[in-house]
Specification:
Chains A, B, C, D: Pfam families: Glutaminase. The structure is a homotetramer of 421-residue chains. Chain A has a 6-stranded mixed beta sheet. A 5-stranded antiparallel beta sheet of chain A has the order 2-1-7-6-5. In chain A, strands 3-4 form a two-stranded antiparallel ribbon. The first copy, chain A, is of the alpha+beta class. In chain A, a hairpin with a 3-residue loop joins strand 6 and strand 7. Chain A folds into 2 domains: 290 residues, DD-peptidase/beta-lactamase superfamily (Beta-lactamase); 112 residues, STAS domain (Transcription Regulator spoIIAA, 2-Layer Sandwich), CATH 3.30.750.24. Chain A starts with a helix and ends in a 7-residue tail after the last strand. In chain A, helix 3 crosses helix 4 and helix 7 packs across helix 9. Chains in contact: A-B, A-D, B-C, C-D.
Chain lengths: 421, 421, 421, 421
């Protein structure tokens, strides 16, 4: 069987190919001469699969899509507080090339506008950028020397921004060196597959889905995705988040990435830009993907089945006493556990045996595990005995036996229901 | 057993009670004389449970927390496009009482700042506001006539805003009538339990978790939550979203709600406000909740188990042919299905029977269902026969039998694995 | 003989009549329906002559041209400091209807923009406005009730401004009452002759050139003219002052006044407005007047003759001693006196008689008088005797005789040169 | 006798010496270490006298006081229109170092803020600056190399501005070269005497009062003074113009110049600056000078004597016919002539002889001359014969005889009244 995903992605590209609004970025010849019909889409999943359709082998300069990754690297190197001293996290509602400094602190409002990105770059050195982007992409990235030279030659606004930043003490380094380095960072060559896997690394809590490397810690990925959510699409951030609902970043070459926490990274390429500087077809593609796949972060999925698959009171183990057996299913998460705790509130005090059967459970979230153990602790304190049936060791107890459910009380853990005496 | 949730919530309140920064809103006596030690927290879950601790019986005026709900009602009544003609969705990076009109269209930038909220109110009539808020809260809400009168008497800025809006043709109605109505809307009396259930209604895709009423359609809830995400906390929106990561809205009485899609609604009360106009302790409470419960929207959960619980090739039905049996578990969603499709790609063309056993599946997402059927369709086209074992009718086929997997090809659906001939 | 002035003024109108750029103010029907071909020009001189040509009998509403006069009245009633607490004097570089409040004090930046003018109006009462404007015009002015009603009905922006001003504590009064009164002030009916004489009153240091009434004190006229210079033409103030160089104010009816200190007042009418809201032909007319008449305030006149018409040493009175006789001419002002003092420095110490003959002097400025007396005092202290010949009593000594030239020393004053013994 | 002017100026310095508000400019060590007690005042008159008191021999860097002079040089070299394409003339109401670009054209709002001054400098070359400033000062000015180096090393904001200007196509040159040159321009060393004579050159219609060189044409001086009036004192321009009323420019070294058209130039030095960046004592000094000397441009002088000193009808020349003899005095200017024309309107048609005696006239303004000749022309056309008595050739006819008073009609010109037959 051939996976339907590439076919679906090709369909999406075709559906958006009639969109020909927008203009090529014109400030340097290399961008102005890009082929406006270029169209590509890639997806990288948390388990490391990569799909790419259309002009997937075309390499282009990463441009502003480098901003969230450089931000993530700066967070790793300097910590959150130190980076926040230099760059804020507030949406500016302004275009990418506005200076947008906080009027009280003179900090750039966020790392997704040029002023913020230049400041972030000043916190990194050239080797760190090269190594960090290589880790995100899973391969070394080359600089397009021609684009780099061309952009640097016309980088008046970025030079202005860098000088203003040094004037305000936001950056220390030589403005020319910073703009030079930032321009090199923006001139790294990528294809949509690279971008998808880079986005997937953020979406995957910082772990590269292919190499398995923890490129940035979990909190850095979270911080970066949050900033992409509110600031990634410049002055169209609200429009994007209401219609697409995916943390994203666009670049002037026509690239556009979306990173969906836990679900993977997407990347599109189409060089024509709308008035916000975002790829026109790229936006269309993501609107389609978000709608088709129900990936809007504010889209509430239909309620899952209740955590309790069944509840029976019976003498299951033939010891002459009726046990209260709860068969759990699905995800032991906050919502499910809250529901289960309400049910457990019905258990009168007494010495009844309570069995919590996790055989049908396929994931245990951290908050769910804590709620489950706290429920068990309270049952024990009420006089019950509690037994977890956990064939797949979802509770990560290692060996079957007893488990301390908090400050003393213990419960039994068994691998099979009928293995009990 | 007593549920640990109220105890946990009480712990959170206690942990935040040493925070005494911030100032009471001072512009009207009723707010200036509020008891600054008031502290309450409530939670409403999608299944209709409500927990409330602290000063849960204290009623206070809803103030700006009314904004997202009025926005939702206007969306219902007028549709998205008509509302967007009047109010944008872009974060303003400005304080709540800034005029913040879009320089090209004169529309208020978003419905969470006063200019936008006044515009939204002008799209509703008094009866609609009363009925709509009653539906969200699950009970009729009264107006605090004293606060209303006091606020109206000092509503110079809102009058200024309303006149400016009419000047720009954004509102048609009499500015005084609009401000009067808006002030009444802001003076509705609620307690934290009301707010939690109202937030839960948004988080529950528009369905009231207690009454079961579909208060607003799914798309309206999504749109409202998205706007809360980028604009709900005024000029601290980015700070809030990076640290707390929950769609939220604050009010000048010290109320603060968070709505977590699919997971429920939280509401806190503490009257002292920080410089952004957000409840100081309220922010602390939410930071704690978000951290403890892993509810930050950008927090990637640990990877769930793979969708494929097991795969075996065997002559299960004793007909002399080996079937390829995939035992699925957990959630049939995009990520899981993508993985499964990769596995199914290994199935050579041929006439083998493929069994997809959904007995351990506890939810099927829409995108997952479509991917599953498309996979089945391709297998059939490749010559395989495909059988779903679906004891709990997760595929919602109604009766067992055959299912059209798209444009002709069919698969078998059985309720039990061993019921096959 | 017929004075050439009206003919000249008619010529100016004709020369500008081919200019048909600009648009009628369209926000109320009364202005939108004005006859765009209306064209009038008036001049009022400090001695009370009034010339008016073109549509000089057409009455129109005074609109923003009322602003400097209301400002002058408020200065009279409250004093400079109190008015400055409410309204600044800084140019805003913004259009007439911008709010333009000082970000630190919330004061309107100046009294020529609407926010400032509304604030100024709030410092006056209706009777004061009526009486004050009557004094400036030399006749009672009526309100155009239709324009007033029409403007009030569409005064959303001014209401917005007034509410914002009260919000900031800049005005205390009811915003509606203030806007109502302000709109009445703007609806006063004038013709170009009225406006010319009103401007002339300011140009004449506050004294009405016809009635002779001191309508406002000298310092108020100076303050008002200074504010007109920097703020009178909104965001075209700099363009106007460089090209025309006359303190001025425009109104949306197409009126335009210029007040040239000491020289009189001009007023033009032509309803079509440029993008700054200033009368297109009005601006042309003033450019022509300024150029033809050399009235640009920054235009340096050709140097006048030196103050010393002649200097001779001779025994004029036949007493056997040579006197040093300085025949002065023209204006005894700073420049002339400075020059004379340099000459007097050549007078060696000694007991020579110094004669200062003012027979050809036609004005003595205050600073000139002080310099002249100080020079005389120093000559006397050096041992000289000093005699003023002052046939026309330019020194205002009343009787001839002796004059105390400062702290003791005295000089002689004679009415005729040859009357000395 | 010793001129009282230096004594007066010393008195002014002493009266202001108790003012010790303000702070030294601190951004470079050379300014931060200036002696804050430095205090100097100079005056240069149109006839070339220079007075200087206090620390008159202290040299300091000219800083922003160079701006109007560079602007004047650029106007000379490129013409008004070309300069206006690069820099506007509108007050910005902003501090000296704001970028303040016109939002529609990206031009700096005026040449007195840094963005405008840098743009102006880019229109000049180094030799032109050196030669032009030497012409204004009447001597070659040296650069303070230490201040220049120090300022250049910290010129981040100016570099930012220059890059932004090139980004907008306002300047073409290399931003570093422009800022380098501009910094050298600002580092020219002057004393208050230099500044006074430079200001006097502008006040003297472009002619250097000492060297007599026409440094810039009359229109350039007018344009420059007009821009100084509205923009010279940054965001205190309105405050300055209402209280002092003199075109002015301040610099960060504590220098402050005032140029009073036709009356001369003043310069003060005192290094402590107010929050607008203007010398605190310098402002006080000018307030005092303006008040004492009645030099506020909006101060209306007391009315001069009427132009007509006397009017008699008599047979002065004994020819048996009564002539109508007007003895004129003072200045033949617009105001005086308007008055005279009103009188001449009383002359019935007829063949009477009209004598206009200019013996007591000490200046004839251009507009007055035209009005006088036009009046004469009309009298001749009415049938009168007209005779000017003009002993000092105020009408600049050269020889006595006849003068064409316009399109044919002639009048007689005589040097003495009684020389007529």
């Amino acid at each position: 069987m051939r996976s339907p995903l590439p076919d679906y992605m090709t369909e999406v590209l075709e559906a958006c190919s009639d969109e020909d609004d927008g203009e090529l970025a014109a400030y340097i010849p290399e961008l102005a001469e890009a082929d406006p019909s270029r169209l590509a889409l890639a997806l990288a999943t948390p388990d490391g699969t990569r799909y790419a359709v259309g002009d997937a082998d075309v390499r282009f300069t990463i441009q502003s899509i480098s901003k969230p990754f450089a931000y993530a690297l700066a967070l790793v190197d300097h910590g959150l507080d130190a980076v926040l001293e230099h760059v804020g996290v507030e949406p500016s509602g302004e275009a990418f090339n506005e200076i947008s400094l906080d009027p009280s602190t003179n900090r750039p409002l966020n790392p997704m506008i040029n002023a913020g990105a230049i400041t972030v770059h000043s916190l990194l050195d050239a080797d760190r950028v090269a190594a960090g982007f290589a880790a995100f992409a899973g391969r070394d990235l080359e600089v397009d020397e021609q684009v780099y030279a061309s952009e640097l030659a016309t980088a008046d606004r970025n030079h202005a921004i860098a000088y203003m930043l040094r004037n305000h003490g936001i950056i220390d380094a030589d403005p020319h060196a910073v703009v030079d380095g930032y321009t090199r960072q923006c001139s790294l060559l990528v294809d949509v597959g690279d971008l998808a896997v880079m986005a997937a690394t953020l979406a995957n809590a910082g772990t590269h889905p292919v190499t398995g490397e923890q490129v940035v810690p979990r909190w850095v990925a979270r911080q970066t995705l949050a900033v992409m959510t509110t600031c990634g699409m410049y002055d169209a951030a609200g429009d994007w988040f209401t219609t697409v609902g995916i943390p994203a970043k666009s670049g002037v070459s026509g690239g556009l990435i979306g990173a969906l926490p836990g679900k993977g990274g997407f990347a599109a390429l189409s060089p024509r830009l709308d008035r916000h500087g975002n790829s026109t077809r790229g936006v269309r593609i993501f609107e389609r993907l978000s709608g088709d796949m129900g990936m809007h972060l504010m889209e509430v999925p239909p309620a899952a089945r209740p955590l309790t698959h069944g509840h029976a009171s019976a003498d299951h183990d033939g010891d002459g006493e009726t046990e209260s057996v709860y068969e759990l299913q699905g995800s032991v998460d906050f919502v499910g556990m809250e529901r289960l705790l309400v049910e457990l509130e019905q258990e009168d005090e007494g010495a009844r045996e309570i069995v919590l059967d996790l055989a049908r459970v396929h994931e245990v979230r951290d908050v769910g595990r804590r709620m489950l153990l706290e429920g068990a602790r309270r049952l024990v304190l009420d006089g019950h005995s509690v037994t977890f049936v956990d064939p797949d060791d979802m509770l990560e107890t290692g060996d079957a036996g007893v488990i301390d459910v908090g400050d003393g009380p213990e419960a039994q853990v068994m691998r099979e229901r009928d293995s009990r005496p």
